[in-house]
Design a protein that fits this description.
The protein is built from ten helices and ten strands. The protein is an alpha/beta fold and 281 residues long. It is globular, with a radius of gyration of 20 Å. The termini are far apart.
Length: 281
């Protein structure tokens, strides 16, 4: 594990208990660098959410090793240190919010860590400011929208000063506006705070701003690379039951009709190229 690596999976396999122990992950190797924004894509049952729980030591590998800042997740005495480094935001924010008010909820993890009250006050204020929720500090969480609840869940993790935040399908239950809010926040925390973001998702549009994309299929890494590298392989992704970003899909369909445009990931860029093409005809 290099000094730049935050998290490393080495030959990791995992199966859930049951009559038939069907492998969910099969000898997975993955390295996540400090300060990076990584998206892990896959359809339901691909193993991506199981991988997230292994990264946070909610599950332990059946085979192989997972290192978080050099700490083996199997070391029970270091469990809380692992979770201090890697915080997780789940799909349903209602399952993660426990406080009577917004600031009570953000304080919950800090109280469990035994943080000094003066330091706790400072961290709560900083975390709420970072997610743009300062004015809701005394609000009861049930009054918030889905996107706002996810912001509070992220603030609670941020206050514990993690090296990385895992978003485990954190936008799956949100409307398009809520998804956009959470992803814009994640990108800002990565860019401005230097927090490593690991986004577990099945929405390809969420991955276009990533530094690195890993695609899971049937418990194995199908492909990985930059968004350009991964999403340019349209047929391979579709064969695995995965979609590609809208701009990539449209460009691919136009190419099938003999209309060739430069490869783009974003809709705005696609529109520019189409307008330029139309203006020359």
């Amino acid at each position: 594990m290099s000094e730049e690596s935050l998290l490393a999976l080495r030959h990791v396999s995992f199966s859930y208990e049951g009559e038939e122990r069907v492998p969910v992950l099969k000898s997975v190797d993955l390295t996540i660098e400090k300060g990076s924004f990584v998206s892990i894509l896959g359809h339901n049952g691909s193993g991506k959410s199981t991988m997230a729980k292994l990264m946070n030591a909610l599950l332990l590998p059946e085979e192989g090793t997972i290192l978080v800042s050099g700490i083996d997740t199997r070391d029970g005495e270091m469990l809380w240190e692992v979770r201090r480094h890697v915080g997780m935001v789940f799909q349903n924010p209602d399952n993660q919010i426990v406080g009577a008010t917004v600031e009570d909820d953000v304080a919950f993890g800090l109280e469990n860590m035994g943080v000094d009250p003066q330091e706790m006050r400072k961290r709560i204020d900083e975390a709420l400011h970072a997610v743009g929720m300062e004015k809701y500090r005394t609000t009861q969480p049930y009054r918030l929208s889905g996107g706002q609840k996810q912001r509070i869940a992220i603030a609670g993790i941020m206050a514990m000063r993690p090296s990385a935040i895992i978003l485990d399908e954190a936008t799956a239950m949100l409307d398009p506006q809520g998804r956009q809010e959470v992803m814009l926040l994640a990108r800002r925390l990565n860019r401005e705070e230097g927090i490593t973001i690991i986004n577990i998702t099945h929405f390809p549009e969420e991955a276009v701003f990533s530094d690195h994309v890993t695609v899971m299929n049937a418990g194995e890494v199908l492909m990985e690379g930059t968004p350009h590298d991964v999403f340019s392989q349209v047929e391979r992704l579709q064969a695995a039951g995965l979609d590609v970003p809208f701009a990539v899909r449209v460009r691919h369909e136009l190419a099938a009709q003999g209309i060739n445009l430069p490869f783009v990931l974003h809709q705005e860029e696609l529109v520019e190229h189409v307008c330029r093409l139309l203006s020359t005809r």
